[in-house]
Every structure is written in structure tokens, then in C-alpha cells.
Write a structure and sequence with these properties.
98 residues; mainly alpha; Methane Monooxygenase Hydroxylase, Chain G, domain 1; 79% helix
């Protein structure tokens, strides 16, 4: 890379570019997780057991991938997975309760 004016370091510029790319990737992953969990919650609210159970592995997969890549902490992913499973369990045990 060519030498720049004083006070602007090439390594800092490269680091900034890299951080922007990673932030965009993490933002996209978190958005997909949020959208999937909202869709899952809507299915649970409608008590649509069949489709909710089909969506659960997809949500688990997204959370596991986010934890693997470092977008989410592994314990955060585990907590979210546990809460999804608990929500589906409540409507499975007692269909009359939301």
C-alpha cells in the first residue's frame, strides 16, 4: 500500500475495513436469528404445533452457527435454544394456555 500523509496509518485503515466487514456479517446473522425467533413465536402464539416443530431445528442451526463463528456467546445461544424449547413444550403440554 502506498505511503499516506502523516497521521494516517495503513494498518489502521485495513483494520477499519476488516471491522466493517465483520460487523456487517454479524448484523446479518443477528437479524436472521431475530426474524426466525419472531416467526417461531408467531407460530407458538397461533398454537401451530406442526410448523413450530419444523421451524425449531432451523432456529437451533442458526444459533449454533452464530455461536460457532463468535457472533453470539455459546451460553447465549444455549439460553435462547432452551427458551425456544420451553415455549414449544408449554403448548405441547397444555394447548389451552398461551
Amino acid at each position: 500500500m502506498a505511503k499516506l500523509k502523516t497521521g494516517r496509518h495503513t494498518s489502521a485503515i485495513k483494520a477499519w475495513r476488516k471491522s466493517e466487514k465483520l460487523a456487517a456479517k454479524n448484523r446479518g446473522m443477528k437479524t436472521r436469528i431475530h426474524d426466525t425467533s419472531k416467526d417461531f413465536s408467531a407460530l407458538v402464539a397461533k398454537k401451530d404445533m406442526e410448523n413450530a416443530q419444523k421451524m425449531l431445528p432451523k432456529a437451533y442451526s442458526l444459533l449454533d452457527k452464530a455461536a460457532k463463528s463468535g457472533t453470539l456467546h455459546w451460553k447465549t445461544a444455549a439460553r435462547k435454544k432452551s427458551r425456544l424449547a420451553a415455549r414449544i413444550k408449554t403448548i405441547a403440554q397444555n394447548p389451552s394456555v398461551k
